[in-house]
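Structural biology now treats backbone shape like a language. To illustrate, our science desk offers a sequence and the tokens encoding its fold:
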Amino acid sequence: MLYLQILVNGVIAGSAYALAAQGFNLIYGTTRIFHVAYGSTLLVALYVATTISVSGPSVYLGLGIGALLALVIGGAVYLGLYAPLERFGRPRTIVFVASLGLTTLLGSVIPWVFGSSPRTIALPWLLTDRTVGGVQFSPMNIFTVVGAITLSLALWSLLRWSRFGRHLRGITSNGELGNVMGMRRGRLLTYAFALGSIVGFLGLAAQAMASAVTPNLGLGFTLVAAIVVLGGGAGSLVGSYAIAMALGIAQEGLTLVVSASWATVIIYAALIIFMITRPSGLVGAVSRRIL
């Protein structure tokens, strides 16, 4: 039964990593912008959500408003920061530095505006453990697993079958087509940032429910998302989901022989080695496909 519990814990952890990664993957895979400020911008929306309410039925109102705010912030960051840099032909290194600067700025502003004390999102019924067949889990764990599967399939279907997805894949795989589309390209990439941000907010909110909302939460969230996306292949939703699940299961499995902290170190070291030996990731580079 111990091994089954570890497997379940691994699937839960992997699903949390997938929730963190898929929004980042949509942004990076379509815009080619390494959005370092991903978690920090989402954290602003999450703090607003907790400010509205931290307990009771109004938590759902707060999370709903937070999700809409994340969507707006995502689109605004592209339009206000990245789009002008691209329009003036600034190199990717400048875009990366600008994103890093935004992260640093938000890292100072968030504690000043919202305080540095941890906040909790109080929905006790989600965190109450149940035991079925000797395996322990909570409703939050179920929502995390189901949410990761549902959001991944929804994004995959959107990119694969919708008109928006076809256009987005077209301008990503063909730079000349993107230049011809002009303003339409900017609108599509704005939508990609907005959609990726709302997906990321759901992942960040799920993580905060299991722990707490702190000023450092966004940076760690971005780090996990970036590692999973680069390991799975930038632009590959399938690859990042597979890496997320492998990461979660391997990390939990290693706790049988080493401590949890050492398991994390070993897993991340292995992923770094994997990315060095296979830079295009598990599935392939963004230039090949956005799925």
